Amino acid sequence: MEARRLGAGGPSITRLGMGMAAIGRPAYQTLGHGEDFPEGRSPEAMERHAHQVLDEAFEAGVRYFDTARSYGRGEAFLRAWLEGRGLGPGDLAVGSKWGYRYVGAWRLEAERHEVKDHSRAAFAEQLEESEALLGPWLSLYQVHSVTPESPALGDGALLDDLARLRDRGVRVGLTVSGARQAEVVLRALEVVRGGAPLFAAVQATWNLLDRSCGDALARAHAAGRTVIVKEPLANGRLTPRGAAGQGGPLAEVAARTGAGADAVALAAVLAQPWADVVLLGAATVGQLRSNLAALRLSLDEAATERLGALREGPEAYWAERSRQPWT
User: Fold this and answer.
1) pLDDT tens digit string along 148-188?
2) Which of 15, 70, 139, 152 could be joined to 100 by an S-S link, Cβ 3.0–4.6 Å?
3) Mean pLDDT of 103-128
4) Residue 168's Cα: distance from chain center in Å?
């Protein structure tokens, strides 16, 4: 699998990464998520399940793994898996995030599953928790889901705290979300501490439905930042479970190539030269194997043009995403 670098002089990372949002906690906003755990969703069952998916990803060559404090027990599941396989910091790269707290109490129908907090106190608390679990493996620590309304980029004291973490050798990044992602990415590129850019990586949503952040991500890549693409399958909308995967341009291209709708959608993201890492959000081994077929798929000009018909405006896309239930 093709490899790139995590920041200037950073560790090697693979073009495909494994995201743990769907396998670190019992509920998530992915179409059909409730069907993916026939063995049940107790913490013990989900840890076994997560380790199977992580094993499959590692055997396929994936060497970047992405989790967060708000992914339930995602960091703990990852730590147990790393130790169980005897993997050291030089064997892969791990990214985690702070800024959301998981408050779902392992309930499928919790009133709220996570709470956002971008304060200095939250950073200090969650960094201590993340380092206790992932210490030597932690390569990248990201501010989780920065939007224009977030205080994170305007809090000088917090930025200084992040710079001190960077100076200790942990690369600092941020993830963005919402219809104004591009605006936040461009603001982040301007943040400097100690005479050097603060953020080594930016993580944003880009997929066949919402491409609005593409130009900003291309600028980030050109400026030497590592670009990580999240939600390339639009929380299941660009898989056989979604309407787009069952009919229309995506299904047509998939039928013509002999690949699954998910692989076609992922191949379209991998074709973007600025996309350094594309995160897979597979919740099962079968989904992961189907996703990995994207590595063998090259889309021709006709397919790329046909897939252009899927584009939605960012406001419409994010409004639809907000309506997806946690299952």
Assistant:
1) 999 999 999 999 999 999 999 999 999 999 999 999 999 99
2) 70
3) 97
4) 24
Three-state secondary-structure class, residue 192: strand
CA 36, 207, 103, 322 dihedral sign is negative
Q: Which residue has the tokens 């989780």?
A: 144
Query: Burial level of 322, CB count in 10 A (0-12/13-18/19+)?
Result: exposed
Give residues with Cβ within 8 angstroms of 212, minimum separation 6. 179, 181, 182, 313, 314
| HSE-CB of 136 using CA atoms within 13 angstroms | 7
pTM assigned to the model: 0.97
Please give the distance of CA 194 from its chain centroid, rounded to a whole number. Answer: 28
Distance CA 219, CA 216 (A): 5
169's tokens: 């050798």
Q: Residue holding tokens 């949503």? A: 205
Indicate if the pLDDT at residue 8 is higher than 90. no
- Domains located in the chain, CATH noted: 3-323 (3.20.20.100)
Q: Encoding tokens for residue 220?
A: 């980030």
The fraction of the chain above a pLDDT of 70, given in percent, is 100
Q: What letter would DSSP give residue 201?
A: E
Residue 110 is given by DSSP the state: -
pLDDT digits (tens, 9 = 90+) for 214-240: 999 999 999 999 999 999 999 999 999
| 213 backbone dihedrals φ, ψ, rounded to 5° | -95, 0
DSSP 8-state assignment for residue 35: G
**CA distance linking residue 305 with residue 308, whole number of Å:** 5
Residue 204, φ and ψ in degrees, nearest 5: -145, 165
- Listed in sequence order, the residues at least 6 apart from 320 whose beta carbon sits closer than 8 Å to its beta carbon are 237, 312
Listed residue (289, 278, 290, 174) closest to 230, CA to CA:
278
Q: Which amino acid is located at 227 in the chain?
A: V
